[in-house]
Each structure stands twice: as C-alpha cells, then as structure tokens.
Automatic annotation (TrEMBL):
<protein>
    <recommendedName>
        <fullName>PilZ domain-containing protein</fullName>
    </recommendedName>
</protein>
Length: 498
C-alpha cells in the first residue's frame, strides 16, 4: 500500500511538472483551472520536500504569468465585470495566496541555527510569497473587489521577517491611496510604477509622529489605516509606517513632468504631448510605465502624493438612509436628456445606502446602464422629481458581479446642456458639456463639466440652445477637477472677446 501511494505521488509530481513545462493554454480560464487542479492534487499527495519546493516555485511563475494576462483583460472592460471574468479574478487571487502560503510552509522548517545557504533560501521564498500577495491584492483592487480572506494577516506576518520588502511596501502604499477610487488602468500603472521606483516606506519613529502615517494591527486581516482617521488600539501589536521617505523621488517626477508639459504648452505642442509616449518625456531615461498620457500621469502622481502625505478626512457625516432613486450614467446621457431625448434605456433605479450634504453611497438593485468606474459622471434624482443632481463617482466596490456600490460626490443640484469649443480646435472639436450653476461655498463661479481633454486653452466659445440661441465667449479659470472621463472648470464671461 505504501509503495502504491508513493507511485501515485510521483505520478502527480511528474504530471504537474510536465504541465508547468508546457505552453500556457490559449484561454486564461483554462490555464487557471488546470493550475488549481494540480495544486489541489499536490496538496493531497506527499511528494518529497525538494520536489514540492521546486513545483511551488514554478507554480508561482505560472500564476504570475496568468495574472499579467488577467490584468490586461481588466483594463479593457468596465464595471460590473462580466461574470466569467469575475470568477477568474476571484479564483486567481485565491490561487496566488495559496501558492504564497505553500512557499512559506516549505521554508518554515529553516530555523535560526540553519546554514547561511538555507537562510538565504528561506528569504528568497518569503520574498516570492510577498510578491504573490502583492499580485493578489492588485488584481482584486483592479476588479473593485476585496482582497482574499487572510491575505493581509499573512502579508503582515511575512513582512515582519523582511523589513523594507518592496512588494509589501508597494502593497501598503496602494492600499493607503484608496484603490477603490482609481480605475483598473490607473491601478495597473501605479503597480508598475511602484515596482520600478522601489519606494522607501519606513516605520514611523513613534505614535506621536504619525499624523500623516498609517498603522496596521499585525495580527488582524486588515489593510493599513490612516492615523488621522482612526487611532490604533492600545496595547496591540501595531506597526506604524510612513510614505514620507518616498516623497522626494515622487516630487522630482512631478516637477519633471510639469516642466515638460509647460514647455509643450508654451510651444503650442499640447496635441503632440497628449499623444506622446510617457517614456519619451523622461529625461533620465528611466522609462515610466506605458498606458497613460503625460497629463494623466501628472494628475495621478499629484493625487497619490496628496493622499500619502495628507490622508483625506471625511468632513461631513454620512447618515444611513434607504430609499429608491433614479440614476442616469454618463455625461453624454445626461446631456441628451437635457436636450429632450427620451429617458427609456437611460434611467435605472438604485438604492441609497447613506448620504451627506456633499455625497451619497448607492447600490444597484437592477440592471446597470453603461460602464462604471471612478471618475464617471451620473445624474441622481428621486422618483417623481424633474431636476437631476449631478455627481461624480469617487469610488467603486463590487465583490459580486451582480452588485455594485458607488460613492458619489455632488457637483451640482441642477444643470443644463451646452456645447463648448476652445480656441484652436476645429469645428468637429465642439464638445457636449453640462453647465453647472454656482454652488457656494464649494464653487463661487459657474462651471462646465466636459469630456476629458476638452480644456486646451483659457478662452472658449459656448452655446446654449433653448427658446433662444445663446452664444458667448468664456474665460476659463483653471481646472477644478480632472478624471479619466471628465473635467470641470469654472469660468466667467469674457468682457473682451477676440
């Protein structure tokens, strides 16, 4: 019986090894299912330690390859995810964590008295395990889902062995930056950026110096918490850390991009800058990740720096409420409604979970019209009302492909449809926009909400249709908000049109 069991174990080890050496399947779901099946069989078998370790390391390489393919897919779709992709992401994140735990278990027998080579081998496996934890967190965040159960507690424990580990530092920084408020494309860029920068994230000196830092309860399965939002529990095994050591390198990147973009604006080359590859703007020949335009990169780096150095605080208390509202997703859809288009196929019902004077948290109760992501504009109103409250999506959470929660920031309590054209743009450059009224004390001037990339100069022309056609020249007062989907700028009527 023992001999038969050993033969079966050897057969499974050989089968797993042959699969790992073969080419990946064309469909990522098939490749992932095969990996999970082999991992399950290996767990039931009892191979020798050396063979098991080699298999787990090879499995980690294959899992990271699968994750790279899934990341590409996540950047091409909106939320909510197609059910098949949601299943793949969930299973992948769990598989990454399972492999990380397997690697750590293989290295667990290395004690303090072990030889130098054995200690180095354990350190390498722990680093690989943390890299897998980081990847599981990234793919979960890109799908707007929670991290796998047990991921943070496992990562906190391993990070105690390797202070300053890059994967853990990047994972903590991304969590501290509120990943639910970024798009999948932005999160993928941030992950690649941090991997290339090797950010320095150092422990804070003491609890008194952690106003702009974060803490984690090492024994808890939870992401970092800002000290400005909540104080750590007394007497717990708390680890403090700060992003301040990374700020000089981050600020240098920001200043560099500002200089290049300002030079291009002065030379009338904004169109070229928008289309240029980001790596061509890097004077130090240390290529930034691809995927975003220079202006998008600059806005993103500024946001990250602000959140890492001055974590945002909620200034208005959210009150729990439960009532139905009608929602219309997208600037174009709202613009068409204001111009008299029918509401059919544009308006769906959602449920308000809580609200404050400045925003809402809502959850879908039926089908979703349009793709959702942070930065998208939507209109919200109670059934029976005629005016729409204009909001921007600040964060998205979706642990279930049939359920999405949105955090909204109110931009205006009403709007009207206009068309805007900035100087230097051709006739086809006329863009639909929403005219927003003054909203004291947040906004002291009227504003326009337009598609991202509309704002190109200080002066522009806008027209409003109605009983009478109104045409005027405005002077923009600077961008107040810029997302991957829209931009908002206040303006005043230009008294000296030219």
């Amino acid at each position: 019986m023992i001999q038969a069991a050993r033969v079966a174990d050897d057969d499974e080890t050989d089968s797993f090894r042959r699969w790992l050496e073969a080419e990946p399947a064309d469909e990522v779901a098939d490749d992932l299912d095969a990996l999970r099946a082999h991992l399950g069989a290996l767990q039931d078998a009892d191979p020798d330690r050396a063979a098991s370790s080699r298999l787990m390391e090879s499995a980690a390489t294959r899992a990271l390859d699968i994750s790279a393919r899934v990341r590409s897919s996540l950047q091409e779709v909106g939320l909510p995810l197609p059910r098949a992709l949601h299943v793949v992401v969930t299973r992948l994140a769990r598989a990454l964590l399972a492999i990380a735990q397997g690697l750590e278990a293989e290295a667990a027998s290395t004690g303090p008295g072990a030889a130098r080579a054995e200690r180095a081998d354990r350190e390498a496996r722990v680093r690989l395990a943390l890299l897998l934890c980081h990847e599981a967190f990234v793919v979960s965040a890109m799908s707007a889902a929670s991290a796998p159960l047990g991921l943070w507690a496992f990562a906190h424990r391993l990070a105690g062995e390797l202070p300053g580990d890059l994967s853990y530092a990047s994972m903590a920084l991304m969590a501290a930056a509120q990943p639910e408020s970024f798009t999948a494309r932005q999160l993928n860029w941030i992950a690649d950026f941090l991997a290339a920068q090797q950010p320095a994230v150092l422990p804070a000196a003491s609890e008194e110096s952690t106003e702009n830092a974060w803490w984690v309860l090492v024994s808890a399965d939870a992401a970092p918490v800002s000290s400005a939002r909540r104080l750590p529990p007394a007497g717990g095994d708390v680890r403090h850390f700060s992003a301040a050591p990374f700020d000089p390198a981050l600020l240098a990147r920001i200043r560099q991009l500002e200089a290049v973009i300002a030079g291009a604006e002065g030379g009338g080359e904004m169109a070229a800058v928008d289309m240029a590859e980001v790596e061509m703007l890097d004077a130090e020949d240390e290529a930034l990740p691809l995927g975003l335009t220079p202006i998008e990169v600059l806005a993103l780096l500024r946001t990250l720096r602000e959140r890492w150095l001055s974590p945002p605080l909620r200034t208005q208390r959210r009150r729990p409420h439960h009532y139905m509202v009608q929602v219309c997703v997208g600037l174009r859809a709202l613009w068409e409604l204001a111009r008299g288009r029918e509401e059919a196929d544009r308006v769906v019902e959602w449920q308000v979970l809580n609200e404050s004077p400045g925003g809402y948290a809502i959850m879908n109760i039926a089908g979703i019209k349009g793709e959702l992501s942070s930065g998208v504009v939507l209109g919200l109103r109670r059934p029976g009302e005629t005016s729409w409250t204009v909001c921007v999506v600040r964060w998205v959470r979706s642990d279930n492909p049939d359920q999405v929660e949105l955090g909204l920031q109110v931009l205006a309590l009403s709007y009207s449809a206009v068309q805007v054209a900035f100087r230097g743009t051709p006739l086809r450059g006329v863009a639909p926009a929403l005219a927003l009224p003054v909203m004291e004390p947040v906004r002291r001037h009227a504003a326009f909400l337009a598609p991202a990339g509309t704002y190109t100069s200080r002066r522009f022309i806008f027209l409003r249709e109605g009983a009478q056609l109104y045409v005027a020249q405005g002077r923009a007062l600077g961008l107040d908000m810029q997302t991957t989907s829209v931009e908002l700028f206040q303006y005043e009527i230009d008294p000296y049109p030219i």
